Amino acid sequence: MSWDDRADAVLDKIREVGRWRQPRTLDAQDAVAGSVEGRPVVSFASNDYLGLSHHPEVVKAAHQALDRWGAGAGAARLVVGSRPVHDELEAALADWKHTQDAVLFPTGYAANLGVLTALGGPDVTILSDELNHASIIDGCRLSRSEIRIYRHNDLDHLADLLTATHGPTLVVTDTVFSMDGDTVDLPELIGLTADHEALLILDEAHAVLGPDVPFATTGVLRVGTLSKTLGSLGGFVAGDRRYVDLLRNVARPYIFTTASTPADMAAARAALAVVRSFEGDRLRATLRRHIDRLRPGHPSPIIPVVLGEEEAALAAAAELEQQGLLVPAIRPPTVPQGTSRLRVALSAAHTDEQVERLAAALAALE
């Protein structure tokens, strides 16, 4: 079989099982509104949880960085790719996360690959939650470590695995899980890993409302993204300086990648200033109100509406889109068979009227 035939066979199989996908172009007007194929829609699909991608100060900072440093960095950070804005953002991220230092990566995905491959190895055991993000799964595989999976958010199962594991051990988990929007019991997890002298790696990509790591916690590395809460693009790892220095020297996604654009870094720096201000408190309060309108007490802006079969999820998404509400259908392999769903992602940029429209449409579907 030729390579062309192999590729065609895989594509045919994808079509056969009804899982053909292609990008959907949203011509955005602001953080939540835009058009798809000329039809106006309100998007409930973005991870821009605070709406900062269109914040005037964030956009202004990106423009200023373009004017000062140009469109690209031109080289990796360890060559000549660093600009003052990279250093300033790393210092600000470390201060935000209450750690000694932070290091930037081109994406959150690359941050997870970088930290897990740098710290893992044949003599290391990694214990990973079964619902961790794909970037964690791939980082574990590439680390060449022994990998053991514990049941989702089952700290008793994790404790059993820690007791049975000898030698250097990493525990890695999302703090907010991207498809269910549920959260980890962070105090219990931190205490458990500390008792077993395991290094804990937390992916806080979706943790716009927490849970947050207690101040001055040791033995924890905090992985984050600039593309969700901060509305820009990039990733980072924050922690004790020894680990950050190690990543700068051995993490391949850091060493062998052109530095992130100055505009993205300046945008993230400006967004972080908003997040840490009174305005940031107001935006989080608005987001909290929107969540409680749809699902009172839910811990994150990710609200799953589980419908079961793929056809049901696709039909529901299509019906909502006809009403001008863009809510994606999530199906296998992203989620387990039989748990296809709508994934609602709320933003502080949504208006009360837009959230009410969505609530009424979801009620009608049910």
Alpha carbon gap, first and last residue:
48 Å
Average residue-wise pLDDT: 97
Provide the domain count: 2
Strand content: 15-25%
| CATH structural architecture of the largest domain | 3-Layer(aba) Sandwich
Shape assignment = globular
User: For this structure, what is the CATH class of the largest domain?
Assistant: Alpha Beta
Describe this protein's structure.
The protein is α/β, with parallel strands linked by helices and 366 residues long. It has two domains: 24-49 and 301-365, Aspartate Aminotransferase, domain 1; 55-275, Type I PLP-dependent aspartate aminotransferase-like (Major domain) (Aspartate Aminotransferase, domain 2, 3-Layer(aba) Sandwich). The chain has helices at residues 3-16, 56-69, 77-81, 84-96, 108-119, 134-142, 155-164, 186-195, 241-250, 252-255, 262-275, 278-294, 310-322, 352-365, and strands at 27-28, 33-36, 39-43, 101-105, 125-129, 146-150, 169-174, 199-203, 220-225, 235-239, 302-308, 325-326, 329-330, 340-345. The strands form three sheets. A seven-stranded mixed β-sheet has the order 4-10-9-8-7-5-6, sandwiched between helices. The N and C termini lie far apart (48 Å). The mean pLDDT is 97.
